[in-house]
From TrEMBL:
This is AmmeMemoRadiSam system radical SAM enzyme. The keyword Nuclease does not apply. The gene is amrS. It holds the Pfam family Radical_SAM. InterPro entries: Aldolase_TIM (IPR013785), AmmeMemoSam_rS (IPR027596), Organic_radical-activating (IPR034457), Pyrv-formate_lyase-activ_prd (IPR016431), rSAM (IPR007197), rSAM_sf (IPR058240). Keywords: 4Fe-4S, Iron, Iron-sulfur, Metal-binding, S-adenosyl-L-methionine. Residues 55-262 form the Radical SAM core domain. Its cofactor is [4Fe-4S] cluster. It comes from the Bacteria. The lineage of its organism: Bacteria, Pseudomonadati, Spirochaetota, Spirochaetia, Spirochaetales.
Length: 320
């Protein structure tokens, strides 16, 4: 008998002993299971800015964790040793249960837990188990994802995750050629989450050889019509199978200038010397000067999530 997995848009239909495209979900003794459930391959305390989230509890730390796996196969993957099937081994670690992670987050004074580094969609059963316990203890929950949800996954995950950083990697052609994926489920997920008022920030890694100005402006438009307010343009460095040279600072500046007239109010540069400050989009007061140096401190002009000069509300969650 075949069983379908609804954890992501691929919807793999699997027979006994088969694994899905992620190599994580498999049918074992007639049941669809997540292999190596709870066996973490990464666990660290990070600044929340590293996710990147710039408008969600700025200056705070987040307990960040991952299991193996991803459902896309991007040739530039920055975390390929824990995402791609050919690098997966049996993690030696014992499974870590939810209560232990919640206690650790509280001990380490982290107001949030982040599911990150690899692709949490393919281990979402474990993510949801931990997230539910974390929320019961008053912690916030963060998912850093490629955004290729199925509709069922969105419905399951939305109530338990507070903030999302979602990759929008390029246009449809780019996804098919470079990632063996599709842009459509990502755009659908962004629309679903923004519409329901989840906290959403989007990241696009910019490859100079792939993302010309027209391409980036198309993405800006797709995000703006869906109501996205925070967009990170992250500078590419060669990694995994991608050998193109690193994106230059000059090119980053050129793209930031090009998108400055888009309706997206907060656009930042990542892995770069370019813009990382937050200014009020209404009166241009400086609200947060820079995220590259921790600890991050909002300026005096920024009080309780409002610009104190013009009193406008600034998008985000500013206190836990
Ligand atoms: S998580 Fe996605 S890729 Fe993995 S088995 Fe399920 S549907 Fe397939």
């Amino acid at each position: 008998m075949k069983i379908s997995c609804d954890f992501c848009y691929h919807r793999c239909t699997l027979e006994e002993g088969q694994s899905g495209l992620c190599s994580v979900r498999m049918v074992r003794q007639g049941e669809l299971v997540t292999q190596a459930y709870g066996q973490l391959v990464a666990l660290a305390v990070d600044p929340v800015e590293k996710k990147p989230l710039y408008h969600f509890l700025p200056g705070s730390k987040t307990l960040s964790l991952a299991m193996y796996g991803c459902n896309l196969h991007c040739n530039f993957c920055q975390n390929y040793t824990i995402s791609q099937p050919s690098f997966m081994q049996n993690p030696a670690a014992e499974p870590v249960d939810g209560p232990a992670l919640v206690s650790l987050a509280m001990e380490r004074k982290c107001p949030s837990i982040s599911f990150t580094y690899s692709e949490p969609l393919v281990w979402q059963d474990y993510m949801l188990e931990v997230a539910s316990l974390a929320k019961a203890k008053g912690l916030a929950t963060i998912m850093v994802t490629n955004g290729t949800f199925s509709e069922e996954a969105l419905n399951r995950i939305f109530p338990l995750i507070d903030a999302y950083n979602i990759d929008l990697k390029g246009d449809e052609q780019f996804y098919r050629r470079v990632c063996k994926g599709s842009a459509k489920p990502v755009l659908d997920a962004i629309e679903y989450l923004v519409h329901r008022k989840a906290h959403v920030e989007v990241t696009t890694m910019v490859m100079e050889s792939e993302h010309d100005t027209a391409h980036i402006l198309t993405l800006a438009n797709q995000l703006a019509v869906r109501g996205v307010q925070v967009w990170h343009l992250s500078r590419y460095f060669p990694r995994y199978l991608a050998t193109e040279k690193a994106t230059s600072e000059t090119y980053m500046k050129q793209l930031l200038d090009a998108v400055s007239s888009s309706p997206i109010e907060y656009v930042y540069a990542g892995n770069s010397e370019q813009k990382q400050a937050t200014c009020c989009p209404y009166c241009n007061s400086l609200l947060i000067s820079d995220r590259r140096y921790v600890p991050v401190h909002p300026e005096k002009a920024f009080v309780g999530g409002r610009c104190s000069r013009c009193n406008r509300q600034i998008y985000g969650r500013w206190t836990s």
